């Protein structure tokens, strides 16, 4: 139904003398949008829900959050600033304002995406303005500006020195791999929007991992299965154990996998167990509930294997955030240590599957 | 001037049948206070500033924050809850409410302190109440409940099942090692109060690392040198490059080190360079400023060595949070990945020095 990336009109200005106090602003819609599941719909939304009317209302709402989206541009400006307006989700005790509604800039150096600076959000207003990085050399740089995790972006302008060069980046990632999941995919407890495991995977593999995380959701509803199947992608990762009940997993996994498989006969489908939630480290009930859910999804995948479903893969959850219980912020959501471990543990497993495609 | 730990009166109740809905509350002042620099003064403050009248007013204020403090207790209750009142610092874009004013519980298992649960703060009130962990087995457990990083605690009661046993923990750590520093020591951008590098070091070494981090401060004032020298400790770590200027470092290091050495002729004094701040990854001015400050502190330490100051140690900053630029939340403060790397990098260097004492 929807395929391809939103590539804004190339927007170029001639290079000139730098003056950090003298900025001009470029509407981000004239640059490159990275990480969208569908090219249609509201520019800063992750899904065009006019195509997916049956989705749960909360999932539709959460698809307006810009987690996983980034603006790609080339510039030789020695300063990068931004003005951005957000409609934030309600505050959460787990999230810094920076992750909730701030910006996060990466720049490529010697082939590696490296952190460059953050856009610090206003603590009292939805309209934000600030310098992200300054006093850089004036070589041409590939930039990727991650948008807020838990807010809808209403507008974004990127500020550069007057006369500096800026244009849309050529699309920086290959293929398209959807990751469907819960608040963990959404990025709850990342310190900033570029440190989710999804964002790290894209930067480190060069593949386009698309964030379809829905905090407090991802319960594998049939309408979500239909939605995922209708998005063209090269692979589908299902990281949706955390919020689903064992019964829901038993009832819904078959439909979810088969619906995607029917529309995409060749695409790898990769089912991921839950991370080991540290609230179950001493809480025996939580620990047992999670074990039951993880066993249930394993059984469902085994049944599908036995039924002959091909190119269906399974990643265990037990080592994803390490085993020292230091990898979550609240016992549920990975902190930046947990996300780093998830990315590094999943990367070779995923690349073994995706490299063969 | 002040030495020793605040050990509350042992408070014991006979073990009985558990009923998670039926709690009784123990004032935390009847249990064990861990991590205080001085035993006198307000119970939940880090310093008794009536002894240190010359300290900068902002440092005095920040010493009311409970970062690094923890309540130690033994209990066989299957549920642990808390009611706590805070006077929070102003919100920061870098901090989650959990780190700002929440609680963080660790329990010892097979000799290792492991995460057990968090006390989630109210988003709109200073009075908080919540379950930290429940559905545990009823074996006797050693518990360490970390207090908020950026708030003053006004009161704290710990809830256990009616009839369960609770008492003050014997002091869990040996020796006393002061760490004087900036917001990085204070814990800015830890996801919760137990993930600062200071807290990790205590849990992993069994030594009592005492948090004297002062966000936005630690400028090595003479009054602070006098304060540190007047606190009895077995070693002194000076992690105070980040907020001091190069001139301040050049002017103040000698007085700081010599003042401590004069009062404590045998105690190791360990000077730490700044972490490599990732806002200087592309910002050439920030990068250079930090290099100058780090060179300055190294020169000052070398001068002191040449002058014959003994048992003065130096830890380089360049590898403390890794080299991939993923270890900070905002380019300045370590996120949980950075804190984990700091703790693991510093631990062997510190133990080599402290084991010989």
Kindly name the structural category of chain A.
Answer: alpha/beta
CATH topology of the largest domain in chain A: Rossmann fold
Number of strands of chain A: 15
CATH architecture assignment of the largest domain in chain A: 3-Layer(aba) Sandwich
First and last CA, distance of chain A: 22 Å
**Integer-rounded radius of gyration of chain A:** 20 Å
What's the order of the H and E elements of chain A? EEHEEHEEEEEEEHHEHEHEHEH
Average pLDDT of chain A: 94
Work out the largest interface and the residue count of each chain. Answer: A-B, 51 and 51 residues
- Level-1 CATH class name of the largest domain in chain A: Alpha Beta
The share of residues in helices of chain A is 25-40%
Q: What is the makeup of the main sheet of chain A? A: 6 strands, antiparallel
Structure description:
- Helices cover 26% and strands 26% of the residues of chain A.
- Chain A has helices at 57-62, 97-101, 183-186, 197-205, 222-229, 246-263, 284-306, 336-354, and strands at residues 23-27, 32-34, 70-75, 80-88, 103-109, 112-119, 127-133, 141-146, 151-161, 166-168, 174-181, 207-213, 235-239, 269-272, 312-315.
- In chain A, strand 13, helix 6 (246-263) and strand 14 form a beta-alpha-beta unit.
- The first copy, chain A, starts with 22 loop residues before the first strand and ends with a helix.
- Chain A is globular and about 65 Å long.
- Chain A is of the alpha/beta class.
- Chains A and B meet through strand 6, helix 7 and helix 8 of A and strand 6, helix 7 and helix 8 of B.
């Amino acid at each position: 139904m929807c395929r391809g990336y939103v590539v804004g009109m190339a927007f170029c200005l001639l290079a000139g003398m730098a003056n950090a106090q003298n900025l001009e602003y470029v509407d981000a819609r004239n640059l490159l949008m990275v990480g969208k599941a569908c090219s249609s719909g509201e520019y800063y939304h992750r899904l065009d829900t006019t195509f997916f009317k049956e989705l749960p209302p909360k999932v539709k709402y959460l698809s307006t959050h810009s987690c996983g989206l980034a603006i790609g541009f080339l510039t030789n400006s020695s300063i990068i600033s931004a003005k951005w307006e957000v409609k934030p989700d309600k505050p959460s005790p787990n999230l810094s304002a920076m992750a909730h509604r701030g910006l996060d800039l990466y720049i490529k150096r010697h082939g590696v995406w490296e952190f460059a600076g953050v856009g610090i959000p206003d603590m009292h207003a939805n309209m934000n303005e600030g310098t992200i990085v300054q006093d850089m050399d004036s070589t041409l740089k590939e930039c990727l500006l991650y948008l807020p995790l838990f807010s809808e972006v209403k507008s974004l302008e990127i500020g550069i020195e007057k006369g500096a060069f800026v244009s849309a980046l050529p699309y920086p990632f290959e293929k398209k791999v959807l990751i469907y999941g819960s608040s963990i995919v959404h990025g709850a407890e990342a310190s900033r929007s570029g440190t989710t495991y999804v964002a790290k995977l894209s930067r480190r593999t060069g593949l386009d991992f698309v964030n379809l995380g829905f905090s407090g959701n991802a319960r594998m509803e049939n309408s979500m299965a239909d939605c995922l199947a209708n998005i063209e992608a090269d692979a589908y990762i299902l990281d949706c154990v955390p919020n689903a009940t064992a019964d829901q997993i038993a009832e819904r996994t078959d439909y979810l996998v088969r619906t995607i498989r029917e529309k995409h006969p060749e695409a790898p489908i990769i089912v991921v167990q839950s991370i080991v939630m540290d609230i179950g480290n001493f809480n025996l009930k939580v620990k047992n509930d999670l074990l039951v859910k993880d066993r249930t999804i394993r059984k469902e995948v085994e049944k599908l294997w036995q039924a002959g479903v091909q190119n269906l893969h399974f990643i265990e959850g037990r080592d994803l955030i390490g085993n020292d219980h230091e990898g979550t912020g609240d016992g549920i959501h990975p902190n930046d240590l947990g996300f780093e471990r998830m990315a590094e543990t999943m990367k070779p497993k995923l690349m073994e599957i995706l490299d063969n495609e």
